[in-house]
Amino acid sequence: MEENIILTEEESKPSNFIHDFIDEDLKEGVYSRVQTRFPPEPNGYLHIGHAKAICIDFATAEKYGGKCNLRLDDTNPTKEDVEYVDAIKEDIEWLGFKWDNIYFASDYFDFIYECALKLIDKGLAYVDESTPDEIREMRGTLTEAGVNSPYRNRPIEETKALFKRMTDGEFPNGAMVLRAKIDMSSSNLNMRDPIIYRIMHAHHHRTGDKWCVYPMYDFAHPLSDAKEGVTHSLCSLEFENHRPLYNWFLEVLEIPEAPRQIEFARMNVNYTLTSKRKCLKLVNDGLVSGWDDPRMATICGMRRRGYPAEAVRAFVDKIGVSKAYSVIDYALLESCVRDYLNENADRAMAVLRPLKVIIDNYPEDKTDIIEVDINPNKPELGKTSVTFSKEIFIEEDDFMLDPPGKYFRLCPQKEVRLKGAYYIKYASHETDENGNITAVHCTYDPESFGGETPDGRKVKGTLHWVDAKNSADVEVRLYERLFNVPNPSDEEGVYSFADNLNPESLTVLSNCKIDAGLKDVKAGDTFQFMRQGYFCVDKDSTDEKLIFNRTVALKDSFVKKA
Question: Which residues are catalytic?
Answer without folding.
Answer: 41, 266, 276
